[in-house]
Amino acid sequence: MAKQYETVIGLEVHVELATKTKIFCGCSTAFGGEPNTHTCPVCTGMPGSLPVLNKKVLEYAVAVGLATNCTISRYCKFDRKNYFYPDNPQNYQISQLYLPICQNGRVEIETEKGKKFIGIHEIHMEEDAGKLIHDEWDDCSLVDYNRSGVPLIEIVSEPDMRSADEVIAYLEKLRMIIQYLGASDCKLQEGSMRADVNLSVRKTGEEGFGTRTEMKNLNSFRAIARAIEGERERQIELLEEGKKVIQETRRWDDAGGESYPMRSKEDARDYRYFPDPDLVPIVIDDVFLEKIRKKQPEFREDKMRRYKEEFDIPAYDIEIITGSKHMADVFEATVALGSHPKKVSNWLMGETLRLLKEKGLDPEDVSFSPENLAKLISLTDTKAVSGSVAKEVFEIMFARDIDPEKYVEGHGLKTVNDEGTLRRTVEEVIAGNPQSVEDYRKGKEKAIGFLVGQTMKAMKGKADPGMVNKLLKELL
Fold first, then answer.
1. Signal peptide: which range, if any (predicted)?
2. Are residues 189 and 336 in the same domain?
């Protein structure tokens, strides 16, 4: 039955910009903080307070617009979107309706059927609302205005997506572009990237659109995919029963795996938009635009091509490393310090990814410096430390970014290359393990591995395994 229907999806993606201060005042945008401490008369909507645009917000918005192939509006202004809600202190939100900053863009995604372009209708700047906390214990609602006035861009796509997979590919592409620009960390779990899904279904082959619903409360890619599948099935079921789909805003409950209505879907006229009288229009000249264009970074696709030509590392490594701009920066900086690209890649792909997964961190959370990673690689290259010691030191470096050279020196972890000391230890191991010695002499090659292990254990991992092997064979 479902095959007779096509899903049509458009997204409204809200992205919190990485400015230090809010869009129209000087309050901090830092995540967390005691409730209502990052506030002032402007972001709490006090009468008579006047907003002033943060220039960095405009720079980020234009940078994202250029990276998504949009036309940048040379003349734009802000509008007031009027609605009453307790987390909205002015009773209006400053946004852009009539003249948004960016229009008519597109991004390319990879799908099962190959490449596909997703159109971007517009990108506009606006302020975020505060946050309501519903206290069931005391049967009341509390409001925190720390988030009120945090700068957002809203990226409105065309209804060009046809499946949950395409939606996820589009969101991942947007997130990658924005993270490479440094315009936002795009952490869904912290709300710095949020997506509302507009979805409708129609009979396969039909040209017109069905009635759409909008789904909110989607804070992970998994929730977005589940919500799309759930809403698609719900709408098809209604149509099959001869019922109508109602245009409304629905809230997705990921734990329950279902959505429920919040309110009927408003049109622009319901918000009584009008130009904001307190904010002057923005005029963008060629000089400003060229300055932003010159600052654009090397994006992932270009980086992947360059890595393939410049560094002798596998395609899989390239894909993972360039998946995070921060990880790519660490890789390039460490290589620039003289480390071999494959060795740097091995540390990032192996121990770094293992520890990130273990601690539930993102690649952006990597805090060790390229200088210290280069020093650790040098210590292993010169056999100043053994592989097992290097891994131990790396764990501490991952947590605290210590200088590995000083740490190895201070904790007496350098590899023992003194042949006299090693020979004595090897002799003791041979004397203490007669069965393994006999096995080796009978032709069981594996027995020497056990003796190497016992020697390394006796040396607390501080011996050169190659030297141990050589001495064992000599003495046996």
1. none
2. no
Q: Are residues 332 and 395 in the same domain?
A: yes
- Whole-angstrom CA distances from 274 to 82, 114, 282 are 9, 43, 16
Q: List phi, psi (to 5°) of 278.
A: -95, -15
Choose one of 257, 287, 317: the last residue of a domain.
Answer: 287
Asked if 228 contacts 221 with a C-beta cutoff of 8 angstroms, the reply is no
Q: How confident is the model at residue 446 (pLDDT cuts 50, 70, 90)?
A: confident
Percentage above 90 pLDDT, the chain? 72
Lookup: tokens for 214:
């909008």
The answer to the question of residue 292 being in a domain is: no
Same domain, 275 and 395: no
Has residue 293 been placed in a domain?
A: no
Chain segment 39-89, per-residue pLDDT in tens: 999 999 999 999 999 999 999 999 999 999 999 999 999 999 999 988 999
Sign of the Cα pseudo-torsion (82, 84, 87, 90, in order): positive
Q: Does residue 268 register a pLDDT over 70?
A: no
Beta bridge partner(s), residue 457: none
Number of compact structural domains in the chain: 3
Would you state the pLDDT for residue 286? Answer: 96
pLDDT band at 372 (very low <50, low <70, confident <90, very high): very high
Higher pLDDT, 451 or 83: 83
Q: From start to end of 256-409, where are the E strands?
A: 258-264, 274-275, 282-283
State which H helix or E strand residue 374 sits in.
helix 370-381
Residues 155 and 74 in one domain: yes
The domain of 401 spans 298-410
Exposure of 122 in the CB half-sphere (CA atoms within 13 A): 12
- 191 conformational bin, left if phi > 0, alpha if psi -120 to 50, beta if neither: left
Retrieve residue 135's tokens.
């206290």
Q: Compute the distance between CA of residue 182 and CA of residue 18 in angstroms, rounded to an integer.
A: 7
pLDDT band at 2 (very low <50, low <70, confident <90, very high): low
Domain boundary among the residues 287, 316, 334 is at 287
Residue 242 and residue 118 share a domain: yes
Are the C-beta atoms of residues 48 and 59 closer than 8 Å to each other?
Answer: no
Same domain? 442 vs 350: no
**Paired residues of 186 in beta bridges:** none
Residue type, 342: K
Q: Which ranges of 153-279 would DSSP assign to H, the alpha helix?
A: 164-181, 221-240
Q: Is residue 180 part of a domain?
A: yes
- Residue that has been written with the tokens 């979107």 in this structure: 81
DSSP string, 237-253: HHHHTTPPPP-EEEEEE
* Cα–Cα distance measured from residue 476 to residue 472, given in angstroms and rounded to the nearest whole number: 6
Same domain, 93 and 215: yes
Q: Partners of 274 in the beta sheet?
A: 80
Segment 243-263, tens digit of pLDDT: 999 999 999 988 888 888 987
Coil, strand or helix at 465:
helix
